[in-house]
Structure formats: structure tokens, C-alpha cells
Amino acid sequence: FFFFFKQKTAYEISACLVGSEMCIRDSCGYQTIEVTSFVSPKWVPQMGDNAEVFQKINKPANVNYPCLVPNVKGLESAIKIGVKEIAVFGAASESFSKKNINCSIAESLDKFREVVNEAKKHNMLIRGYVSCVMGCPYEGEIDPKQVNQVATALYDMGCYEISLGDTIGVGTPEKTKALLDAMTLPKEKLAAHFHDTYDRAIQNILVALEQGISVVDSSIAGLGGCPYANTKAGNVCTENVLYTLNELGIETVSYTHLTLPTIYSVQISVVAVSLKKK
Fold it and tell me: Would you call 83 helix, strand, or coil by DSSP?
């Protein structure tokens, strides 16, 4: 699947899927499907079937199937069942980091470094996520320089791409531009992951595209989101993203990122998407 700007810039679509059992049809053309998370079932019981999910889905050739991995123990579980790509997830907020993964930013980076180093021994690809890039439910405003430090640390340790997450959806076009202006990594190494809590995600995405970002995460029907946000709005709605891109002259095709613990037959409708420059 590809998106085309009027300038003929091509964008590759990738998708994410999470659930207890799914069927992915070869004809959908997914490039990347984020399948599940190898977190402790004690803290996130919904992910207790992660190995089963990964093993039961169909895996067409030439499609990547990354999984979220918070620590070495999770990585070991992922390796056992043949996972080839992982993602580590940190935060630009000290308070959020402690609430979400029970450690400081510095401690989290040390843990991720262990994970990344071990993953490299198995020739695995690693993606990085940074949460709370434009605001935190505990600390409020987040300094873009702090985001840059965390993103750079993840990239330097071996993450091929860093997704910048507006976790509680408080970003604005002005904040988006300020954030990206502060980033020292090449724009082709960054992705935008904006939640739509206050209906500003599309505006922020357009600013990100203007700033050179070519990877955008989204979620079908706006599913997902952050439990710490003030409203129940989830990730930016894929349908709205695709509609907007079409209106801008970008040829689009629907695809998917499911986040519900039930059985799905994924066809054209999507739950999460990435636009990646080809």
C-alpha cells in the first residue's frame, strides 16, 4: 500500500494488530503489523495471551510483526516464539515513567539498553516510543528538549525509528511545530503518534507532515487511547486521517491496527496505521 503526495512522494502503509486471535488476509497488503505486548500478565492481564496471539495469526511473507517489549524477560519470551522485531516504550515525563513502568527515565533507558543489546544479538529490529511528548497528566507541560534527549538516547542505542506520542492528546499545532523544531534527529527517523482527546490530532498531523515527518500512527474508529486523559477519546481515527490525506491529493488505501481482545478478520478497515516514506 502506498500514499502519494502531489509531489509524487510515496508513503508505505504499515499496521498494528492486538487481540486474542486474528486472521490477516494476504490481500490486505500490510507492511508492518504490531501484534501484541510482552508485558507482565500480572499488571496487564489483557496481554496474558500474547504468545498465543502471535503464534495463531497468519504471517504472509514480507510483512513485519513487531511486539512491544518492556524488559529482558519480555524479550526472552518474544524470542522463544520467533518474534523478529520489537518496540520499547519510554516517556519524556519522570512522573509518567514511574507510574507507567515503575522507574525513572534514566532507569528506563538503562533497562531498554539491555533489551536492545540483547535483541541485536538475535538480529532483531527495534523501534522506540516516547510518551507524553506534548504534555503529562501529572506534570503538565513537557519541555521539548527533554523529549529530544529521550528520543536521541533511544536512537543512539539502536532504535531505527522513534515514534513521538502525544499520549493524553493535549498537543496543538503550535506545540507540534515547537516539538519538531527541537528534535535533532533526522525527520526520517521520527514518527508522529497523536491522540485525539481534544479533536486536534489531524491539525497536528498536518503540521508534522509539513515539518518533514513521513510516518503517522492512527487507530480505526479512534480506538485505544490513554486512561489518564481527561476524556475517553482514543488515538486519532484512521478514517479521518485517510480522508484528510485523500483531500490533499494523496492516494490512500485502508488497512489496520486492532486493539480489542476478540476475534477479527482484518480486511480493508483499519485500526492503526503508519505512513512511511518509501
Answer: coil
